[in-house]
Amino acid sequence: MRSFRTSLSIAVVALAISLAGCSAATTGSTSSGTSGTATTTTTQQAVTAATIEEDTHYDGDDLSWDASTEVAISLADGGSKVTSSSSTGVAVDGNTVTISAAGTYRLSGSLTDGKIMVAAGDSDTVRIILDGVQLGNSSGSPFVVQSADEAILYLEDGSTNTVTDAASYADQGDDAPNAALFSMADLTIAGPGSLKVTGKYNDGIVSKDGLVLASGKVTVEAADDGIRGKDYTVLLDGAYQVTAGGDGVKADNETDEGRGWLLVSGGSLSVTAGDDGVKAFNTLTVSGGTVNVAKSEEGLEAQHIAISGGDVTVTSNDDGVNASGGASSSTADGGGMGGGMGGGMGGGETVGDYSVDVSGGTLTINAQGDGLDSNGNASISGGTVMVNGPTNDGNGALDVNGELAVSGGTVAAAGSAGMAVTPGTSSTQSGVQITFSSSVSAGTPVHIVDSSGAVVATFVTTKTIASLVFSSSAIADGATYTVYTGGTADATAGLTTGSIDGAKQQGTVTAGQYTQAQGPGGGGGGRR
Predict the structure, then answer these.
(1) In this predicted structure, what is the pLDDT of residue 52?
(2) So what's the pLDDT on residue 21?
(3) Which CA distances in Å does 18 have to 150, 182, 197, 287, 367?
(4) 448 vs 75: CA distance, rounded Å
(5) pLDDT mean by block of 10 residues, the chain; 528 residues
(6) What is the radius of gyration, based on Cα positions, of the chain?
(7) 220, HSE (Cβ side, Cα atoms, 13 Å)
(8) Where are the alpha helices (DSSP H) in 46-197?
(9) Helix, strand, or coil here: 511?
(10) Parallel, antiparallel or unpaired: strands 90-93 and 96-99
């Protein structure tokens, strides 16, 4: 088991940078002489950064093996057997198949009420190829890694595999398995095949150590959490679809320094969750790929949230992006809700060791609570942030206890007017704040037009709104802009292009001049 840096802010951010761009494929030989490939996303930037292999247990060589060394296991109720000549690491006892040694094992067939158990040595790497496997169990988990250094689950090309646990477990002790696919060791899921995991009792996929999702087409349905790693959860590639009664995907080590982090650097992740969509105890980073949280209480949640690439879409009943948790905090020195975007929610509001940082990619939020929320500071230096925020005045499209510095990118944050927050004094990129005299209906284009009559930006909200904050490099500080509603837009939602033909003039605003709404503890002035 490899160690990784304990300095979370250095290790995870460096790792995210090192995984943003170019593709490198690793090859695993199959018993038929063909080869399956798993693609990992890496980058070629002139930075000194941790690599995925240094910061996790994952190694590209894990997906390469000699087909002649495979141990073939045929699964069948009451008749599972090892069909290879070498079988010293496998024992069959009824419908329980136990793997006790390092090696590569190819499984096929089905167990309607059985179990695959890995009980190998602490330094053993166990590679299990699922080649058309259906596993079920009537009293617990059908797939358990009890001990190993690392377990690799490889989904054979063209194969369809299923793992389904019991609705109740006979063993519910503290150290007992509680997921359909459960591992006490580092776990990697890879390969071009497909896997469906149904967690009827509790969770879907769990690693009590590190978890790397290198590739695969994986569907998870779980009564509680969908996919859960402890030290870290990493999505490199593949398509993962999660439906969970609790949290969707998470990393939850709350005790070990520098652990409990989550990274999406490629692939696609789709989450429908009864609680939080994507969650990490420490740092949650998206540097590439696609993340779609279709339903959640809070969409993304961690102490530190960094988006440097990719395409993130969040729908939430409460906060969309929420930097909060168990970190230490300090009291902000007054300032009310003023002082800019995130100037503090009021005198005495705490500014904790939390952050939201957007430096690239696209972030789209549809939130009933706060849209982009940090209990500490926040920054936007690149990318595109679009917030369809709350309709009630008790929450805001943007809510930052400390300071949010806007130095680049494009921000369009629409919502109610009662808690509207605007760019802070440290911002180097200007913007405009628009408070409408009457609400603007969902689907209505809002146009910002410069003094020459050119449309600088068109934003179409998905909800009824009372305010809009917009910042981009196209806004000149101190310049006057006219705001229109109506007319036409070239898209039905979000930032787009449009025309003010037939639109209604709403008034003028001056870039860099903000009027903060009155919030708890008093109001305040923005950057002038």
Answers:
(1) 76
(2) 38
(3) 23, 29, 31, 9, 31
(4) 65
(5) 37 45 38 35 28 84 92 96 82 96 97 98 97 97 98 98 96 88 98 98 97 98 98 97 98 93 96 98 96 98 97 97 70 34 47 95 96 95 96 89 94 87 91 94 97 97 94 97 97 97 96 63 31
(6) 25
(7) 34
(8) 52-55
(9) coil
(10) antiparallel
Give pLDDT, residue 228: 98
Q: Are 406 and 433 in contact (CB under 8 A)?
A: no
Distance (Å, rounded) from C-alpha 46 to C-alpha 76? 53
Counted residue by residue, the chain has a size of 528
Contact call for residues 518 and 525 (beta carbons, < 8 A): no
DSSP 370: -
Residue 240 and residue 267 in contact, taking contact as beta carbons nearer than 8 Å: yes
Q: Please give the Cα distance from 411 to 448 (Å, whole number).
A: 13
Neighbours of 152 (CB within 10 A): 26
Write the DSSP string, 441-501.
-TT-EEEEE-TTS-EEEEEE-SS-EEEEEEE-TTPPTT-EEEEEE-SEESSSSEEE-EE-T
Q: Which of 132, 143, 122 is nearest to 57 (CA)?
A: 122
What's the pLDDT score for residue 422? 83
Sign of the Cα pseudo-torsion (249, 255, 259, 261, in order): positive
Q: E strand or H helix at 431, and its extent?
A: strand 431-440
Query: For residue 53, what pLDDT is reported?
Result: 77
What is the model's pLDDT at position 516?
A: 58
Distance CA 127, CA 62 (A): 8
Alpha-carbon gap, residue 12 to 150, rounded angstroms: 21
Residues 63 and 36: their CA atoms lie apart, in Å, by: 9
CA distance linking residue 460 with residue 444, whole number of Å:
6
